[in-house]
Amino acid sequence: MLYELAEFLQRYVSGFNVFSYLTFRSVLGVLTALAFSFAFGPWMIERLYRFKFGQPVRDDGPATHLKKTGTPTMGGVLILCAISVATLLWSDLGNRFVWFALMVTIAFGAVGFADDYIKIKHKNPKGLPARKKYFWLSLAGFGVSTLIFATARAPIETTLIFPFLKDVSITLGIFFIPWAYLVIVGASNAVNLTDGLDGLAIMPTVLVASALAVFAYASGNAVISRYLGIPYIAGVGELAIFCTAIAGAGLGFLWFNAYPAQVFMGDVGALALGAALGVVAVLVRQEIVLAIMGGVFVAETLSVAIQVLYYKYSGGKRIFRMAPLHHHFELKGWPEPKIIVRFWIVTLILVLVGLASLKVR
């Protein structure tokens, strides 16, 4: 909105030309989301306490988590509001990629909101029945994947790109739809599984989103993309603002979510953020790079899948003491802050590996 206003005003005042620079608006995006989180965070936490929106804790988890019962949840609403406000203020609202990203984030957030509400209302840590939850997530995932495919303006927008390998790609055609669906829904559930300790999921999300902002900017710039050997996708650079808004909102939320947490993001935040990372990776054609940079999310998801399969086919034996993976380390005696920071460090390393793919081809 303010971007359109600045475009109008620059006809009369040359100083408003600065708003035409994507890098400047990206900085404004992160600062706006951060300021929004700081401004409304305490107010929202107070309201969550007042309405007794406390987190029910499963009794089959680590015993140390029982003391977290009653900590306000659904703080992800703050994150989604901050992202939406920053993106709407500073993005080009005529850009289809921006709307795809916002649609996915809000849709998955809505499913997460329903899940959290049921948990709180019925004091049931399981929340929305798995079939209903999967149905609505699938509907949103397939819906936006179909829209992206239907509105693609160049073959590269539906081509699978392999990092570190020059001129190696696969034209997906109609198979782009199930592929994009798997990436979006998979990323959403991966972040949700990781969100089990104070600040564990949000900082990796911030790091990955920041790196995706670089990919979006580079992919949307004809000169830079040609130099780096990555696909040029006209208009996708606007997603850099969406990504920096995620980073700003995430950092602002971390202020309140850092150990010991004053508020949890809940499924409304985790499902939405994971889907947001997934759809950006799909739009900038860097799904494999997302899997590299989000290695912590991948490991958490695989730990659950491996544990379930091994338990089923080994007659009740377990590989991990508990899944997801962070619970395994908890039961090994690692303090919660140590697990959190070490997972952050691993994510930072993986993000740097992902960024290296921009040049190593």
Give the key terms.
two-stranded antiparallel ribbon; 2% strand; 361 residues; mainly alpha; single chain; 2 strands
How many helical elements?
14
Mean pLDDT: 91
Class computed from helices, strands and strand pairing: mainly alpha
End-to-end Cα distance, whole Å, is 38 Å
Helix content: 55-70%
Largest sheet: 2 strands, antiparallel
Percent of residues in beta strands? under 5%
Transmembrane segments: 20-45, 73-91, 97-114, 134-156, 168-187, 199-218, 230-256, 263-284, 290-311, 339-358
Organism: Sinimarinibacterium flocculans
Family: Belongs to the glycosyltransferase 4 family. MraY subfamily.
Main location: membrane
Write the layout of secondary structure elements.
Blueprint: H1 2-9, H2 22-50, H3 76-90, H4 96-121, H5 130-150, E1 159-161, E2 169-171, H6 176-194, H7 202-219, H8 222-228, H9 239-257, H10 266-283, H11 287-293, H12 295-313, H13 325-331, H14 336-356
Antiparallel strand pairs: 1-2
Task: Describe the structure in brief.
This protein is mainly alpha-helical. 65% of the residues lie in helices and 2% in strands.
What would you say this structure looks like, in words?
The protein is 65% helix and 2% strand. It is mostly helical. It has one domain. The chain has a two-stranded antiparallel ribbon. Strand 1 and strand 2 form a beta hairpin. Helix 7 (202-219) runs parallel beside helix 14. The chain is globular, with a radius of gyration of 20 Å. The mean pLDDT is 91.
